Every structure is written in C-alpha cells, then in structure tokens.
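Hey,

The postdoc asked me to send both predictions to you directly instead of through the lab channel. I've kept everything plain text so nothing gets mangled by the mail client. Protein one:
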Amino acid sequence: MTRTITVEGMSCGGCESAVEEALSDVAGVTGATADRETDTASVEGEADAASLVAAVEEAGYDASA
C-alpha cells in the first residue's frame, strides 16, 4: 500500500533525506520518498498514518496525513 502524507518545512535535499530516514525507521515501512517541491512524502508499506506523522514531527518537520 502507498500512502502520501504532507510534510512542511523541507527546504533542501538534506531535509528530504532526514524525512525519508525518519519514515524508514517506522515499523511496517518498506520504502519512503520525500519531495520538498510538493511538500509530500510517499510511503510504501503497512504503517499507520499516526505513526508516520509522529516520526516526521519527531524529526523536526510538520506533517499531516
């Protein structure tokens, strides 16, 4: 399953990498791609939206599902 979440505050490639790493650490995630141009992250796997949002916020970005 692919889920897209909104991520605000990414301004560079390092930000995208930080968000991708945070999402990849969530149980059930098999892949994650962040895009600062669209303020989104696409996540592959079975993780629930609340866990994804919490991981991104813990990394220092605003997120919503």
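Protein two:
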Amino acid sequence: MKSILLVSISIILIGCSKPKAFVLNDTKENKYFVLEFINKAFKENQIGKSPLIVIDGIPFKYDKSKDTIRLPFKRSDISSLNFLNENSSRIIYNEKENNGAIIISTKIQTQNP
C-alpha cells in the first residue's frame, strides 16, 4: 500500500510539473528507484526538469522531448546515486547543461564507446 501511494504521488508530481521520468529496466517494485530520488531533488529545487544523467562518468544522451526515459540497468546494478545542483553541473559538464545532474555509479562499469 505504501509503495502504491508513493508511486501515485510520483506520477501526480510528474503530471503537474513535467520533469522527466527515468525508469529502470527492472521489476515493478524497483523500476521507479531513480525516479523517486530525482523527484525528491526536483521537489527541493536541487535540479531542473531535464537533468543531465551521468552513468559511470559518461553523460547519458537521451531525447529530452520524451517524458519517460528507460535507463539500461537494474537497481541491483547501482552502487551509488547522487546529484549535482544546477550551478555545479554547469561548471563541470557544460554551460548548456544547467538543469543539474544525476550521477549514477554502477557495480558493473560501462564500457566507453
């Protein structure tokens, strides 16, 4: 019941504020793990509506016009999840990226293309 309420609140927040919905390629219970983290940072005005996603140090390119973005791993693959506020991400990654950044470190390091 608690998880249903949390998912419902997340969906309402997404519908009202239009931030991106980042979901994991995982089971139903774990699918929204990153989304919950992002919604909390968004609610506290730490990040903007379309944050940069950095996976193992590599910026994750996604179509910012889409509402839902599926991340290519499971919750069990994540070793840490942090964020950079808008000012920090602008300085570190690029002046254009001013919506903050979600920093994801995985247990299985991604290969640099």
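Summary for protein two, as requested: Confidence is low (pLDDT under 50) at residues 10-17.

Thanks,
C.
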